[in-house]
Amino acid sequence: MKITFPHMGNVYIAAKTLFDDLGVEYVIPPQTSKASLELGSLHSPEEMCLPFKIMIGNYIHAIENGADTVIITGSCGPCRFGEYCELQMNLLNRLGYNLDFIVIDSPGDIGLKELVTRLGKVSTGSMCNRMDKLKAVLTAVKVVNLIDEVEAKARYLAGFEANKGECKKLLNECKNKAMDCNNGKTMIEHLKKYIDKLNVVKLDHSKEPIKISIIGEIYTVIEPFSNLYIEDKLMDYGISTKRTLTPSWWVKNLVLSPTNMNQLEIKRKAKEYLPYMIGGHARECIGEAVLAHEEGFDGAIQIFPMGCMPEIVSKAILPKISKDKDFPILTLVVDEMTGEAGYVTRIEAFVDLLERRKNHVLSRC
Ligand code: SF4
Fold first, then answer.
1. Same domain, 200 and 214
2. Are 226 and 176 part of one and the same domain?
3. pLDDT tens column, 251-294
4. Domain assignment of residue 346, yes or no
5. Which residue range is the domain that position 79 belongs to?
6. Domain assignment of residue 323, yes or no
7. How far, in Å, is the centroid of ligand 1 from the Cα of 188?
8. Together in a domain, 252 and 358
9. Which residues of the chain have pLDDT under 50?
10. DSSP 62-78
11. With a 6 A CB cut-off, is 332 part of the ligand 1 pocket?
12. Please, which residues have CB within 8 angstroms of residue 364's CB and are 6 or more apart in sequence?
């Protein structure tokens, strides 16, 4: 068994740690690129959402490198994601690939026993004893928390850094060097080292950077290729960003969902505008927009793939939040036809607007 998985932000770093510690064979697909998207789009239904197409591209690239088993996460409510696994299995079978799928889903949906069975399948080829397997899982969870912490810190501090580009350089260096760590212990040490490095980045406290919250559909906000590296672009502009939806957030949400104690604050903030779970992460998007305003952010950017049903609903609600709270929100819809020039122009125009609003407020103080 040679395991692979679709790319989604920093997930590959935690997955690498898990499989290294379990001692199972795995293939990390090449980083998502135009080639993955073109390959996935070629074989996927045209009207299918972007994440599906990119994932198909990732799988085929991994299969070409010897993978025979795919791990994916399960449904996030009543939207197409719930059907991804079945559809992807059928599609790959039709293309002549014989892949096994292991779907990791919420214990609330499939039951704890079934979740444990599926997790057990992942470690079938491992020689570790039970205790070491459990340790490997816990280490991988720690790694995903740490790498998300590095990323969040770097992206937020980018607005305050005295030496332009330092946070971005450290973030990229951290991710690149993470691939040289071949067990959980060294990976954790490596990530902690970069948290320490970010903690001593020279800051210019006289700066009043623009602060933007990134909200929207979980895959497109997390996977940088799918959003045309928006967070990197904003770092280059000297903007501080924050994003709640991360792989570590997802893990925490998965674990807490059976208790209904998950993301209580976001649910509370969304209540006035969208009190129901309507699929995907639409409710989170609404709650995050309200939260970003309350936390003093200057604006929010919602990103979602063309045709994403839950996010179309949140897009319809966001103008009301924007009006009620005098809080600018930009919506960007991405698909395989998105042109970078027009996309960047819209981001720059939004940043201009936020700057003028901020200068106006500061000049009145
Ligand atoms: S949340 Fe949107 S993009 Fe993601 S699977 Fe569902 S419909 Fe597709």
1. no
2. no
3. 898 777 777 778 889 999 999 999 998 988 999 999 999 999 99
4. yes
5. 3-126
6. yes
7. 32
8. yes
9. none
10. HHHTT--EEEEE---SS
11. no
12. none
